[in-house]
Amino acid sequence: MSEPTVVTVTGAGGQIGYSLLFRIASGQLLGPDRPVVLRLLEIPQGLGAAEGTALELQDCAFPLLARVEATTEMSRAFDGVDVALLVGARPRGPGMERADLLAANGGIFAPQGAAIGAGAADDVRVLVVGNPANTNALIAQSAAAGVPAERFTALTRLDHNRAVAQLAAKTGAPVSEIDGVVIWGNHSATQVPDLSHATVGGRPALELVDEEWIADEFIPRVAKRGAEIIAVRGSSSAGSAAAAAIDHVHDWVNGTATPGRPERWTSVALPSEGWYGVPEGLVSSFPARSVDGRWEVVEGLDIAPVWQRRIDASVAELEEERAAVRALGLLG
Ligand SMILES: NC(=O)C1=CN([C@@H]2O[C@H](COP(=O)(O)OP(=O)(O)OC[C@H]3O[C@@H](n4cnc5c(N)ncnc54)[C@H](O)[C@@H]3O)[C@@H](O)[C@H]2O)C=CC1
Ligand SMILES: O=C([O-])CC(=O)C(=O)O
């Protein structure tokens, strides 16, 4: 067995944390031969819940779980961290947009980014889940001196999975037959779930579903699914968010290629290097493959004007969020 991988989960006492930790400890995050040390970071009010979960994790006797520690100290939590899942942040309630959380949550991510810069392993991988995830990732990344920007990502895999599931339901195809879906932009109601490159059992999705369904049902359903879950469930999505976080890190570490689908891609929010005209530095969602442990954005896809207008609106929102957090003094 290899040396254990240090995985830090912030907000470990919360609802996503509770869905996430058992799956990480059982090997579903990294693979069946990778032992893990779990570090659970909480604020004092959440520490008891995290400590209780640590006891339960021990009771599972997971063969891959080398150690679990709960702490309120950031420097301890991020010391030598290989994979950081930044979940800890307030969720929204009914009637709120995710951007309404910027003032409440933005302040969490600069100190955590700085602590990652100070203590993390050289090849740390960071996934921001706490909302508004893209701009929180930007805040953390800008505070993490010495860590390459590409090591910071935000979660749009949940949106990607939702889009795949909606297309599967509409066409009657199994999800395993769907490929080439893309989420562009922000993890918000302006996000762009794009089917123009998608295939269903090898056939272009655009031959199977019409533009009206895409514009009037598919896009709003996927983009507003978080609000739908809040309305129906009474609190924001947790199990599906944890599952998407697992998928994201699993693919980052192990690659996106699968048997028979070497070119498979997924959607990842990461600091733009100017791809598809998205201003440099904005943490925006792109189609990406993971190759040799690094994300590679899929370049050169044709974007029809109708999709480009939608993408532009989401990127404009990300620029507004960046201006807002800059004004709050949260960008290094
Ligand atoms: N990007 C995505 O796709 C999704 C993002 N989310 C977001 O994930 C976040 C967490 O959601 P839940 O687990 O449902 O919330 P929750 O309220 O159940 O748990 C959040 C936990 O974070 C802790 N916390 C707060 N500040 C902290 C800090 N500075 N350091 C460490 N821990 C801290 C709290 O004590 C609490 O235990 C929310 O912001 C939510 O909006 C939720 C679903 C999907
Ligand atoms: O909608 C929310 O506030 C939680 C979230 O990000 C999602 O479910 O996509």
UniProtKB/TrEMBL annotation:
Keyword NAD set for record: yes
Family per similarity comment: Belongs to the LDH/MDH superfamily. MDH type 2 family.
Domain Lactate/malate dehydrogenase C-terminal: 156-323
Catalytic activity from the UniProt record: (S)-malate + NAD(+) = oxaloacetate + NADH + H(+)
Amino-acid positions noted as binding NAD(+) in the UniProt annotation, renumbered to this chain: G11, A12, G13, G14, Q15, I16, G17, N105, Q112, V129, G130, N131
Binding-site residues, substrate: R92, R98, N131, R162
Protein name (record): Malate dehydrogenase
Residues in Lactate/malate dehydrogenase N-terminal domain copies: 7-145
HAMAP family on file: Malate_dehydrog_2 (MF_01517)
Keywords: NAD, Oxidoreductase, Tricarboxylic acid cycle
Protein's job: Catalyzes the reversible oxidation of malate to oxaloacetate.
Organism: Plantibacter elymi (nom. nud.)
KW Isomerase (keyword) present: no
EC number: 1.1.1.37
PANTHER family given in the database record: MALATE DEHYDROGENASE
Lineage: Bacteria, Bacillati, Actinomycetota, Actinomycetes, Micrococcales
Residues of the active site: H187
